[in-house]
Design goal:
Layout lengths: L1 H5 L7 H15 L2 H5 L7 H19 L4 H24 L6 H25 L3 H12 L9 H17 L2 H5 L12
Organism: Mesorhizobium tamadayense
Pfam families: Ubiq_cyt_C_chap
InterPro entries: Ubiq_cyt_c_chap, Ubiqinol_cyt_c_chaperone_CPB3, Ubq_cyt-c_CBP3-rel
Amino acid sequence: MFQRLFGRERHANRAITEALYAQIVAAARQTSFYSDWNVPDTPLGRFEMLSLHMYLVQHRLRGEGGAAAEVAQVLIDEFFLDVEHSLRELGISDVGVPKRMKKLAKMFYGRTAAYDDALLDDDLAALAAALARNVRPDAGEWREAPLLASYVSAASGQLAAQPTESIVSGTVAFPVAGTA
């Protein structure tokens, strides 16, 4: 069944991709991040939070085959299309978009390595340091970084506990920020 949905006709079932992406965006837009944890409510701050949540889903689906691998690829494609669309909405010219997209893609994949290492080692201090470097590079000491690191750790655990079949069917759940 899943092969039919995401195999040769992988774009045929947009409903699943759109549902998953909407859930990722909703998780990234939790107001606690911006109001309580001092994540900058700017295009770059929102990119950081969306990147973080996209990373968490990609991290969960990594190593899965079949439909899960297809879902992971379709989601990352949707993410970068959304980022490109956002750049255009911000008034970046057609000439400037590819250069900025390359920079944002490099930022995204650079962060995944740092977050992977910290999660693999279950090192909340390293995760908090990586988050502070990426989310608040201007802040010096960002006191809320450990809160976000705890959230990321809890989200990773919650995603790991979700059945793959549930995710590829269009449902992904993140914890509520501030309760992790």
